[in-house]
Amino acid sequence: MSVSGSDHDCQNSNPLPSYPDISLRVSTSPNARAKRRIAALIEEVENLKQDRASKQRKTTYYVSQGRAVRRMVALYSPIEDLIAENDRHCEDEESDSEFTTEQDRLQRGYIELTKALPWFHDKLSNLDHEESEEMLKKLKRGADSAHGDDTGTLKELVASWVNIECNPSSFVRTDDKHCRGFVSDACGKLLCPAEWRWQDPVVRAGIRDRTTEFIVSENSWPSFMYENYEADPKNLERGLFKSKLLLMGFKAIFTSPSSANEVEGDGDGADIIENSRRARRRSDQAKVKTCIRFALSNVTSWRTVDGDFDYQMFWNNIVDFFESPPGPVARARVQELLEWWTR
Question: 285 with 269: CB under 8 angstroms?
Fold first, then answer.
């Protein structure tokens, strides 16, 4: 079909669409631009401050929460080991696998961790690996800080308590640990294994000389853990964990150092603590016993092994005493002891 001349002229007369020239600018004053730029920068700085404040709040929270770990959960086991053991228990649940004593001990530690920090288990499940690593690092910082504070506090307090309780001829100095341990008669008597008599010069010399007949290890209960600091040779469980030093140490750590002076040593739980659940936690008591043993020694800085004495094994022995009693009769005695601490 042919196109008429008039139609052809109409098509040629239609203008092409126009587009804005992007090279053009709508003029604005330098002052206005500067103001807007400053406002944007201020907003950016405020956002950075808020992010930093949020991170700081998280850090403060995790560090403060971590202080409970070494006090109420496990004195030595890393949190990562507790987590790994719980995972292993979950994976082996269907296979009815047998677990070792150490694995069961770690699993009990994880359970205590979830009791001390009820939010921890769910929080850990919702974090990615990097976030969980950061959280664990902050918890560990708080745990180590609390442990350092506790040992530092008891270093001085225990010396004062020994001077009052034992009235030694030569007072134990609060500012010098070199004069403690078995070189001190007062501290030596308290550290002496319950099955031996410190008053016996043969025993005293053998311990100080570290002869093979008188090796002091973590496998014996020290006398400071007994009521009136004396053990019954015929029944080494009688009076065990009922010493006034332990009660004072417990109050100093879990309430305040000054409150330790109120202890009468009769096991009155209303005077020992405000919340008896803490006294029922076996790990709390193990913490106190381990720290007091360290405070009585002449070791100046915390370490796991002191001569023939292994503090970690000592901790495990105390926890196992409460957590794994051998049979119903022993369990009943443990329950009676816990009731003595909380009645």
Answer: no
CB-based burial, 20-38: b 16+ in 10 Å, e otherwise: eeeeeeeeeeeeeeeeeee
pLDDT digits (tens, 9 = 90+) for 18-41: 555 555 666 778 887 788 888 888
Tell me how far apart the alpha carbons of residues 202 and 220 are, in angstroms, rounded to a whole number: 18
Total count of residues recorded for the chain = 343
Whole-prediction pTM value? 0.74
Cβ atoms within 10 Å, residue 111: 15
How far is it, in rounded angstroms, from Cα 156 to Cα 261?
Answer: 14
Element (H, E) at 305: strand 305-306
Tell me the CB-side half-sphere exposure of residue 16, using CA atoms within 13 A.
2
Most confident of 61-65, 269-273, 303-307: 61-65
- Mind giving me the DSSP string for 94-147? TTT----HHHHHHHHHHHHHHHHSTTHHHHHHHS-HHHHHHHHHHHHHHHHHHH
Q: Is 167 left (phi over 0), alpha (psi -120 to 50) or beta?
A: left
Per-residue CA distances from 283 to 174, 276, 290 (Å): 27, 14, 10
Q: Are 313 and 319 in contact (CB under 8 A)?
A: no
Question: How large is the average pLDDT for residues 48-74?
Answer: 80
Q: How far apart are CA 43 and CA 141, in angstroms?
A: 33
pLDDT, position 259: 81
- Read off the amino acid at residue 10: C
Instruction: Using DSSP, state whether 235 is helix, strand or coil.
Output: strand
292 touches 53 (CB < 8 A): no
Both tokens of 86, joined, read 């719980």
* Residue-level pLDDT at 16: 54
- Give the residue carrying structure tokens 């909380």: 342
Task: Compute the CA torsion angle 46, 52, 57, 59 (nearest 10 deg).
Answer: 180
